[in-house]
Amino acid sequence: MISFFSPASQDHQSKERRKAQELKKTAWWKNQLAKGYCYHCKKRFSPQELTMDHLVPIVRGGRSSKKNCVPSCRSCNHQRKYFLLEEWALLKMQQLTVNSLDIHPKDFESISHQSQIHTHTEFQIEKESNGHESEL
Asked: What is the reported pTM?
């Protein structure tokens, strides 16, 4: 999946990372960790195994606030990277499709593109040099 965005300024990213460090010290965040669930996969983890994940990533302009920060297991946080939740869901669906077909994910876009081209040309009608129409 290709994602296009302009990263937030370095000043914004530094400021929000500092705010995240402060937010991690609050009773609110400690209570979130104590619940022991990853926001994304819903699996149980010890508080030490959970990380702070920004629903709108800092690099995409997200803020370090109670509304934007959730506990996440390291695996989900690492996989999600800078994707928005909707983008990550689409990426996971593509990977499931690709994995079920035993195709490497990096080949998915080129295969998808070739498939679209093939589908369009299948139904094209082209005149042969002798003036007769034939299907490709």
From this structure: 0.67
